[in-house]
Amino acid sequence: MNLFDELGGQQGVRKLVESFYPKVLNDPLLSPLFPKEISSTMDKQEMFLSQFFGGPDLYTSEFGHPRMRARHMPFTITPIHADAWLSCMSEALEETVDSELIREAVIERLRVSAYFFVNS
């Protein structure tokens, strides 16, 4: 079983995304990096996370290779931003995933990416 399945498949990933983005938009450090109309960002994040956690290649089939570092380069991202992003994700996981082991596995998997985007 992979993280996608452990999270509850597509529904579980969507639930996580829907819990995560209100936290991002309420974070004074992160909110300026995101559009106010967040629905398309949420849809892309759901597609990406589904793929990232071992589910269907939704993001790649629609948008091509993720090239996530390149897509994030226009934004100034510091280690403090990565920490804030991971904190929002941790809170969303607390709300949506019962298993502490799964929450920890997800954060560990995302920690690498969060710090990979740091460019400043």
From TrEMBL:
It comes from the Bacteria. Keywords: Heme, Iron, Metal-binding, Transport. Its cofactor is heme. Belongs to the truncated hemoglobin family. Group II subfamily. This is Hemoglobin. It comes from Paenibacillus macquariensis.
